[in-house]
Amino acid sequence: ETPATDGRFIYAYFGQVGVVCLDMEGNIRWTKDLGTYATANEWGTGSSPITDGHLVYLQCDNNDSSFLVALDAETGDEKWRIPRDEKTNWSTPFLWRHEKGTELVTSGRSKARSYDPSSGQLIWELGGMSTIVVPTPIAGKDFLFVSSGY
Predict the structure, then answer these.
(1) Is residue 129 over pLDDT 90?
(2) What is the pTM of this model?
(3) d(CA 72, CA 75)
(4) In a 3-state reduction of DSSP, which class is residue 67?
């Protein structure tokens, strides 16, 4: 996992330990325990948090109970949590901003999916992924790129 920042705070995900929010002086503002889950081959987690300044998003795909969650950036309070029909993968979600709006895009073993960042509601999904998913979706101009493998 790689920490994320919005310029005010730093958000770090430590897998089974949880999420920590620090101010720019290194003081802990809040922590959030997201639970402990089994992962494929006991390889652990690897998805990084991302933020839009108001919410912190985490993709927590594991072998027990996968989910996508949005936390309030100021308090760590859970704003929404969406179950995912996925097993362990290590991809980081991506906020895709385009002329029609913003989508929270995820890659998974079974499908790539797009969610509404404010509610977690599913927008679209497509299949054809592989059993190990590490790459983060990216965009350029009017195109979104999702891939799988490592």
Answers:
(1) no
(2) 0.95
(3) 6
(4) strand
